[in-house]
């Protein structure tokens, strides 16, 4: 998910959470006093109703009092004015005085007169006889006299005023009580409501209650009900006047809060947008820019590229930009340093062979010809290095380089140090005379005197030249051929130029190159074969073993001797593989002969590269185990001339062989330095005396003395001996007269193929 989307999500969810929290915390608080206000308001309205009722009751009382102290009424009660009611109590009287009933009671509780008229419906009311009697028990109470109280009657709840009747001047005694009342029914309550502009309703109330008690409670979210309780004087009946009104405060507040939240949400949205906008402007877009530029750098793998934010502020991002740039710079430096180490010669500062190879390959790839390779090798450098020391040698190389470099550069060429005292140059020309002139200029410059510290010295250069594409179309071929030409120049007396092209076809190097090419595929093309040469006992001439000798059946050149191709195999790194093939092939053959009843020992030659490679020992273990070949029947021949160069490796190698009980023979003894001291270092079992020792025996006296002395040493050291190159009977006699040894040579048999050996020799032996 993109950073911008994430930020938007985080900011909006935080804001929404904040809003939710705000509303859940604020809402109860905001609504809290709205109920109180609604309640107070309702109570106030009901209190108005109550006060109006009380006023009505007071008015009623006033009217009643006027009547009660009216002389005519008094006269009526005292019987002096019997027509009083007929004259004064008409329907109009009720209408005018706003009274619904009128009752005259004597002090003794006798109903003197009663009449009813409903001022609401404007109709007379037929009062029961018992109607007035309702008041009799009440009138006895002193607190009702001259008051208006609520009395429950046949007509329902009434406000009833009790006034004692007196004369107009207030004199008594009072003959009775005048009760005037108003019916408190729906009509009256509605009328009250209308006057006060409220909606009232009257109901019976089941429980007892205090009169004129006012309460208000909400009955729904939007409505509140106020109740004005009315109780009959005798407490026998209760009524309630209800006022149901909308919760104005609450609703108003709700609307306000809604609006408030609407604005809050609106501002939150605006805030979110503002935050995102600002974050984007100051951070996100820059982070995006940073990441895009880093991706770009990675894609293009451009080590020179740097980050540049389009908006610069002094903040951590700017620091990050600087840090990344510093990191990129340091990476570039490291990269350059690595390139320098990998591609440049640390002594002279010019390209090394790897850079040269790359350049060469590139030119070959794009067929950017013509061009030539010049291979320089210093003549006499080894002497300077060995006799004047490495630091002088190094200084000489630097000076040589300084002299060659300008000449090559002037000719638009590339100079590289190939190794040691070898330099190579790539020149964009194939013109022989031009190349020769350049080579000679170089040789002239190189050949001038050098003043190194306190030494004066001279070196010369031998130059070999190969040309693309006539001398080769790969970098390896071109370099190899320039190298060959350079060797030829050296062979011809050094300080010379040699074109590869001018070498004669018989040139050994040319041949070697071809053989090397063919040898690479010889193993897979089954061109290699093993020949076997027998080894016999000197005394009874019995065959004791065979030596496996490698042959290469070249498709055009016929059989090639190992002496010719093994050094090439060694040079080109093919020998370990060939050697392993020889080992397995020979052991397989010997195992077969053992199974046929010919219990012979097997001698296998190994060369220097095989001895350096531990995988030969692993192969040996594998092969011996695979064919279950007795270790004591195997003899490995190491060549004396290899020892002095690879003594440590050979000590290790022979040690491993000894551990396994394999015999070791020192081959070609007498060809190399013939240092008998090696015998002290190596666990040798057998000495194979080279044929050059025996060749002139017994005619050559010197050789005879040397050989007999050697036999004495071998006997003294208790070693076995095999004398190679036996061609004549007298040689056998000479050996037998000096030592009990074994013999090998054309006299007994040349090396021959396995099948031939089987047919001719082994069969004969069997027969004999
Ligand atoms: P080597 O191990 O000293 O083998 C003896 C060589 O002397 C053989 O030459 C053999 O043909 C030759 N020879 C034996 N008796 C006579 C004789 O009476 N007169 C003359 N003139 N020569 C005789 P070859 O087979 O050409 O082998 C040459 C060398 O190549 C071997 O010398 C050995 O060092 C090496 N070689 C041969 N096969 C192998 C191999 O499989 N591995 C390795 N590493 N080297 C091998
Ligand atoms: Mg040998
Ligand atoms: Mg030999």
Written description of the protein model:
By secondary structure, this protein is α+β, with helices and mostly antiparallel strands. Helix content is 51%, strand content 22%. It has an eight-stranded mixed barrel, surrounded by four helices. A six-stranded antiparallel beta sheet has the order 3-2-1-6-5-4. Helix 11 (381-388) runs antiparallel to helix 12 (390-410), helix 12 (390-410) runs antiparallel to helix 13 (432-446) and helix 17 (575-595) runs parallel beside helix 19. The longest helix is centred in the N-terminal third of the chain and has 66 residues, at 3-68. The chain is rod-shaped, with a radius of gyration of 68 Å. The two termini are 94 Å apart. 31% of the residues are buried. It binds ligand C2E and magnesium ion (MG) (2 copies). One magnesium ion binds at residues 667-668, 688, 690, 724.
What's the layout of helices and strands?
Blueprint: H1 3-68, H2 71-77, H3 84-88, H4 91-97, E1 101-106, E2 111-118, E3 123-125, H5 129-133, H6 136-139, E4 147-153, E5 156-164, E6 176-183, H7 186-196, E7 200-205, E8 213-218, E9 223-231, E10 238-246, H8 248-300, H9 316-343, H10 353-365, E11 371-379, H11 381-388, H12 390-410, E12 414-419, E13 422-427, H13 432-446, E14 450-452, E15 455-457, E16 460-468, H14 475-491, E17 497-499, H15 508-522, E18 528-537, E19 543-554, E20 558-560, H16 562-571, H17 575-595, E21 601-606, H18 608-612, H19 615-627, E22 634-639, H20 640-643, H21 647-659, E23 663-669, H22 678-681, E24 686-689, H23 691-694, H24 701-716, E25 720-723, H25 729-738, E26 742-743, E27 752-753, H26 754-767
Parallel strand pairs: 16-17, 19-21, 21-22, 22-23, 23-24, 24-25, 25-26
Antiparallel strand pairs: 1-2, 1-6, 2-3, 4-5, 5-6, 7-10, 8-9, 9-10, 11-13, 11-16, 12-13, 14-15, 18-19, 18-26, 18-27, 19-20
Helix pairs in contact: 1-8, 11-12, 12-13, 17-19
Bound molecules: ligand C2E and magnesium ion (2 copies).
């Amino acid at each position: 998910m993109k950073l911008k989307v994430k930020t938007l999500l985080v900011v909006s969810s935080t804001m929404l959470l904040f809003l939710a929290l705000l509303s859940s915390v604020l809402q109860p608080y905001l609504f809290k006093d709205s109920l109180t206000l609604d309640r107070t308001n309702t109570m106030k309205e009901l209190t108005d109703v109550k006060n109006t009722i009380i006023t009505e009751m007071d008015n009623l009382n006033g009217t009643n009092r006027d009547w009660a102290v009216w002389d005519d009424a008094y006269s009526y009660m005292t019987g002096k004015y019997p027509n009083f009611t007929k004259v004064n109590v008409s329907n109009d009287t009720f209408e005018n005085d706003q009274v619904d009933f009128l009752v005259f009671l004597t002090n003794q509780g006798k109903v003197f007169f009663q009449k009813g008229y409903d001022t609401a419906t404007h109709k007379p009311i037929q009062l029961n006889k018992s109607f007035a009697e309702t008041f009799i028990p009440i009138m006895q109470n002193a607190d009702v006299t001259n008051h208006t109280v609520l009395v429950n009657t046949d007509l329902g709840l009434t406000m009833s005023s009790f006034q004692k009747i007196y004369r107009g001047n207030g004199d008594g005694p009072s003959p009775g009580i005048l009760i005037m009342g108003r019916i408190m029914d729906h009509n009256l309550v509605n009328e009250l409501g209308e006057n006060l502009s409220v909606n009232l309703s009257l109901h019976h109330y089941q429980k007892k209650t205090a009169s004129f008690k006012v309460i208000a409670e909400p009955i729904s979210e939007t409505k509140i009900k106020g109740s004005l309780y009315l109780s009959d004087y005798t407490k026998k009946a209760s009524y309630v006047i209800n006022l149901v009104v909308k919760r104005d405060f609450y609703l108003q507040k709700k609307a306000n809060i809604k609006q408030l939240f609407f604005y809050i949400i609106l501002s939150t949205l605006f805030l979110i947008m503002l935050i995102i906008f600002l974050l984007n402007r100051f951070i996100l877009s820059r982070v995006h820019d940073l990441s895009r530029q880093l991706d770009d750098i990675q894609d293009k793998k451009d080590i020179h590229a740097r980050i540049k934010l389009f908006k610069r502020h002094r903040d951590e991002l700017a620091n990050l930009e600087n840090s990344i740039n510093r990191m990129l710079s340091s990476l570039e430096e490291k990269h350059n340093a690595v390139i320098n180490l990998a591609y440049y010669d640390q002594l002279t500062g010019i390209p090394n062979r790897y850079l040269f190879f790359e350049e060469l390959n590139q030119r070959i790839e794009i067929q950017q010809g013509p061009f030539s390779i010049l291979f320089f090798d210093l003549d006499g450098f080894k002497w300077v290095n060995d006799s004047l020391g490495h630091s002088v040698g190094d200084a000489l190389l630097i000076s040589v380089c300084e002299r060659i470099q300008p000449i090559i550069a002037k000719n638009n060429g590339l100079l590289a140090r190939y190794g040691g005292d070898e330099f190579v140059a790539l020149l964009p020309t194939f013109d022989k005379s031009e190349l020769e002139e350049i080579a000679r200029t170089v040789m002239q410059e190189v050949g001038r005197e050098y003043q190194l510290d306190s030494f004066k010295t001279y070196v010369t250069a031998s130059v070999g030249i190969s040309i693309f594409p006539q001398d080769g179309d790969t970098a390896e071929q071109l370099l190899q051929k320039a190298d060959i030409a350079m060797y030829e120049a050296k062979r011809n007396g050094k300080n010379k130029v040699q074109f590869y092209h001018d070498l004669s076809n018989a040139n050994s190097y040319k041949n070697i190159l071809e053989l090397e090419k063919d040898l690479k595929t010889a193993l897979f093309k089954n061109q290699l074969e093993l020949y076997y040469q027998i080894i016999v006992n000197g005394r009874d001439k019995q065959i004791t073993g065979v030596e496996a000798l490698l042959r290469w059946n070249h498709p055009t050149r016929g059989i090639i001797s190992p002496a010719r191709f093994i050094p090439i195999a060694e040079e080109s790194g093919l020998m370990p593989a060939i050697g392993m093939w020889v080992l397995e092939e020979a052991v397989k053959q010997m195992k077969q002969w053992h199974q046929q009843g010919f219990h012979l020992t097997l001698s296998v030659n190994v060369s220097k590269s095989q001895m350096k490679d531990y995988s030969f020992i692993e192969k040996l273990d594998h092969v011996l185990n695979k064919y279950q070949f007795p270790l004591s029947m195997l003899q490995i021949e190491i060549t004396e001339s290899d020892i002095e160069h690879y003594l440590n490796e050979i000590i290790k190698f022979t040690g491993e062989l000894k551990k396994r009980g394999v015999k070791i023979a020192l081959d070609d003894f007498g060809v190399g330095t013939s240092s008998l001291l090696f015998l002290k270092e190596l666990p040798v079992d057998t000495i194979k005396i080279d044929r050059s020792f025996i060749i002139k025996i017994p005619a050559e006296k010197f050789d005879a003395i040397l050989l007999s002395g050697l036999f004495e040493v071998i006997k003294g050291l208790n070693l076995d001996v095999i004398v190679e190159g036996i061609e004549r009977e007298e040689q056998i006699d000479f050996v037998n007269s000096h030592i009990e040894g074994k013999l090998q040579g054309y006299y007994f048999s040349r090396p021959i193929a396995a099948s031939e050996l089987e047919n001719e020799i082994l069969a004969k032996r069997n027969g004999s």
